[in-house]
Amino acid sequence: xxxxxxxxxxxxxxxxxxxxxxxxxxxxxxxxxxxxxxxxxxxxxxxxxxxxxxxxxxxxxxxxxxxxxxxxxxxxxxxxxxxxxxxxxxxxxxxxxxxxxxxxxxxxxxxxxxxxxxxxxxxxxxxxxxxxxxxxxxxxxxxxxxxxxxxxxxxxxxxxxxxxxxxxxxxxxxxxxxxxxxxxxxxxxxxxxxxxxxxxxxxxxxxxxxxxxxxx
Length: 216
Hints:
Elements: H1 2-6, H2 29-48, H3 70-80, H4 85-99, H5 113-128, H6 135-142, H7 146-159, H8 168-207
């Protein structure tokens, strides 16, 4: 599963000593959201094709696909319930813990990702920030009834064994890993574009008639 290969690995084992470091304090939060979006879209797209099974995560499963995409949803949360990089990176840590549950591992897909995000950000904001917003505000921003969000919060905590503590070192590792993943993805996309360009160039060359040289 994609969420195991990208989220469940130990970040420290993936990073070389020369890898770029994620600046938790100064890295633009909007850019963090963009990187997070690319990763989550890749995971949800892969998992959408897998056969669904009945799990304890049914509380997060929407009846229909949300009309708002992941990036717009995250940016909406940032706009109306501002929080730092730590809150968004913590989603990866929490999702990892939930995906490593041997009895009922989390499978992120397009039907549950939005509810997982709003519940996770709300919980992490309460942990990392001295001042945080009410559940009613998060519910309005997330497009959910307050009662439902309250239930999602409790379920999210339960699925994390009520352990929401994240060491700063672990957040740094996840930030480094996310940054490296983004760099590798962009590098792969660039190489793919170059390959496609060269393929089209060679095809065009093969279609051209041979040049004839006329002398005097």
